């Protein structure tokens, strides 16, 4: 079986874990990490021996063309980053997590992928991502009913990145707190930059698309040490569905997990990097991907083992 060659775009929380997951995948190889030129050569222990480059062109010239590029930058940059790589003839996977924009992004990436004969899997984290697959399966088992997705308690990476992008914010972490019935509140801790207005930061957070739909509590912290005390990576989800199979009601389902958020997101991305090499040209989400495509090894052996 040929080794799948991957490149990693971005080296934040998720990118660091993607490199780790690739190092532990027996059928994959990391050709290198693409990051800001000013960061090259830093955090060398986290690179696990992978070289870093300032662009995909530099990486390809030195290492050869990757089969897939794993996008690990901020969600808001994913549509343009993915379109750029697809336009250069590289397949991509990403964990874009702005739920209401996903259909639009899929349509945009479908056009770029089809034009260039490559593949993209978008929204490939755990939610959206693997939780999306679970919701689809629950509906297949009980077509009539209601599903509640209850997140947390824990740190939302997408929401935290969104706050850190706001002017005047030195650091921030956003915690998701489940209220029940699929509803959530957001608790945001902010370390303002010196001289920045905390009240203006609060207004900007409240107006951000990541936060406009949920109850919001924004609290100021006074130091980096205080931020460390609230900025853990734990998270989780409780998926619940009650519905009917045919005319028989009272079918109840529950899925519960507690995880390290960036590590799980990275593992799903790496599994999707494997899957995307097995897809036809086009753009997909995880509910489009046959589960067996996510697994290493021979298809028939996995069928014999799992079915």
List the defining traits of the structure above:
307 residues; alpha/beta; Rossmann fold; Dihydrodipicolinate Reductase, domain 2; 2 domains; seven-stranded parallel beta sheet; four-stranded mixed beta sheet; 10 helices; 30% strand
In total, the number of strands is 14
Beta-strand residue percentage: 25-35%
Major beta-sheet overview:
7 strands, parallel
CATH topology of the largest domain: Rossmann fold
Number of domains: 2
| Cα distance spanning the termini | 22 Å
How much is the radius of gyration in Å? Answer: 20 Å
What structural class do you assign from the helix and strand content?
alpha/beta
Identify the CATH architecture of the largest domain.
3-Layer(aba) Sandwich
Q: Specify the overall morphology.
A: globular
Q: Report the helical percentage.
A: 25-40%
Mean pLDDT: 96
Order of helical and strand elements: EHEEHEHEHEHEEHEEHEHEEHEH
- How many alpha or pi helices? 10
**Assembly context of the chains:** single chain
- Top CATH class of the largest domain: Alpha Beta
CATH superfamily of the largest domain: NAD(P)-binding Rossmann-like Domain
Poorly predicted segments:
none
Write a structural description.
With 307 residues, the protein is an alpha/beta fold. The protein has 2 domains: 4-128 and 261-306, Rossmann fold (3-Layer(aba) Sandwich); 144-245, Dihydrodipicolinate Reductase, domain 2 (2-Layer Sandwich). It is 34% helix and 30% strand. It contains 10 helices and 14 strands. It has helices at residues 13-23, 56-63, 78-87, 102-116, 130-141, 157-164, 198-207, 224-228, 261-276, 299-306; strands spanning 4-9, 28-34, 52-53, 68-71, 91-94, 119-121, 144-151, 154-155, 169-180, 183-192, 216-220, 234-245, 248-260, 282-284. The chain has a 7-stranded parallel beta sheet, sandwiched between helices. A 4-stranded mixed beta sheet has the order 8-9-10-11, covered by helices on one side. It has a 3-stranded antiparallel beta sheet with strand order 7-12-13. Helix 1 (13-23) crosses helix 9 and helix 3 packs parallel to helix 4. The protein starts with a strand and ends with a helix. The mean pLDDT is 96.
């Amino acid at each position: 079986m040929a080794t799948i060659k991957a490149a990693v775009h971005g080296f934040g929380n998720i990118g660091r874990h993607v490199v780790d997951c690739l190092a532990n995948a027996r059928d994959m190889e990391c050709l290198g990490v693409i990051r800001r030129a000013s960061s090259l050569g830093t955090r060398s222990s986290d690179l696990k021996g992978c070289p870093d480059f300032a662009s995909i062109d530099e990486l390809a010239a030195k290492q050869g063309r990757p089969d897939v590029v794993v996008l690990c930058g901020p969600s808001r940059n994913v549509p343009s980053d993915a379109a750029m790589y697809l336009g250069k003839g590289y397949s991509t996977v990403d964990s874009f997590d702005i739920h209401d924009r996903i259909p639009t992004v899929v349509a945009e990436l479908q056009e770029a992928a089809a034009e260039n004969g490559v593949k993209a899997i978008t929204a490939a984290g755990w939610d959206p991502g693997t939780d999306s697959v679970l919701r689809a399966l629950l509906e297949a088992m009980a077509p009539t009913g209601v599903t509640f997705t209850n997140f947390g308690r824990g740190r939302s990476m997408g929401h935290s990145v969104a706050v850190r992008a706001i002017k005047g914010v030195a650091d921030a972490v956003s915690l998701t707190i489940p209220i029940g019935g699929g509803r959530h509140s957001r608790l945001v801790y902010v370390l303002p930059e010196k001289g920045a207005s905390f009240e203006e930061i609060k207004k900007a957070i409240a107006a951000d698309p990541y936060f406009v739909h949920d109850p919001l509590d924004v609290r100021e912290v006074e130091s980096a040490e205080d931020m460390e005390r609230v900025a853990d990576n734990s998270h989780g989800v409780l998926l619940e569905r009650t519905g009917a199979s045919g005319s028989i009601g009272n079918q109840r389902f529950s899925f519960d997990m507690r995880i390290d958020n960036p590590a799980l997101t990275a593992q799903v991305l790496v599994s999707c990097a494997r899957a995307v090499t097995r897809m036809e040209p086009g753009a997909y989400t995880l509910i489009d991907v046959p589960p067996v495509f996510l697994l290493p090894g021979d298809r028939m052996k996995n069928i014999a083992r799992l079915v």
